[in-house]
Amino acid sequence: MEDLERQRKKLMFQCHHRGTKELDLVLGPFADAHLATMSAEELSVLTAFLSEIDPDIYDWLSGREPLPARLQSEMTQRLVAFGRQRLLGEGA
């Protein structure tokens, strides 16, 4: 299996099985919609994002805390916007 495909499968699982239902309901659908077309760089950024603890991820997605500079990218901005829409109904 190609390395990127293996990484996508691993990330898909991680996005759907975070341990908190709220994050599963945001990250899972985001992965379903975008993972297949992400570049290797975007996959690396998502891997770094998912290595963070769930409470921090929830705070970033809900807007309680800003996304740290080390995780800033176009992809994470899309993810945060997607999360806010799912969690808070923003932009709906």
TrEMBL record:
InterPro entries (UniProt xref): SDH, SDH_sf
Keywords assigned by UniProt, alphabetized: Chaperone
Pfam (any one): Sdh5
Signal sequence coordinates: none
Keyword Chaperone set for record: yes
Record-stated family: Belongs to the SdhE FAD assembly factor family.
Protein name listed in UniProt: FAD assembly factor SdhE
